[in-house]
Amino acid sequence: MGHEVRLHVYAKPSDVPKGIELADASRLMPRSKATAHAETGSFALAADFFRYEVQAAELGVYVDCDCYCVEPLEETEYLMGWESQSQLCPAVLRLPKHSPLLADLRTIGSVRAFIPPWLPRRRRRKLMLRAAIGMPVPLAKMPWGTAGPIALTYYAQKHGLADRALAPDILYGLAPGHAGLLLEPGLSIHHFATPRTRVIHLWNEYSRRSNRTPHPNSPLAKIIEEGMRIN
User: Fold this and answer.
1) Residues 6+ away with beta carbon under 8 Å from 165
2) Model pTM greater than 0.85?
């Protein structure tokens, strides 16, 4: 779609598509911080930390690798979107370097014991007591999405920026609960897109958990086939 794409890696993959610039991810975040979520094994938590460092370094729009661009993205000061009517998604993200929203998000991974301010008071007190006795609950053992969608939604609302987020169909196209449709035959990306859709989120984490192989005539298989043909 005409965008320059930089892929941040800790080790060079063997199948990088043509035209993709590689960058050393350790310059923004040490590999030791790229830990997996304890319950799911997902590296979404590491991606959350990393996407905020990309914004702090003013490197442009951060986009998860499981986002399929169907129209060019606009260059705006804030670029973020709702994945549902109640929750934002950080898979496509651009924030100003000195935004108070970004400052709060970066604090999550830098403090010794993060206490989610959106939790009920009783739950927060328990977490503070654990931290006080030297047994803080690590982020990797907190609910999935704590440092990502949940935090982004909370802090965007806190700073009065939630109204800058785009509607679900613009940046994500497909609700996470419908990710299985990407593996079904007889469908195409056009079934999920609207005239204003810019990105279709492929929701890799949901597909990974389902352990299903995409049907040869499914939207995901067609996307993979197209990518291999272009490359």
Assistant:
1) 78, 80, 81, 82, 88, 156
2) yes
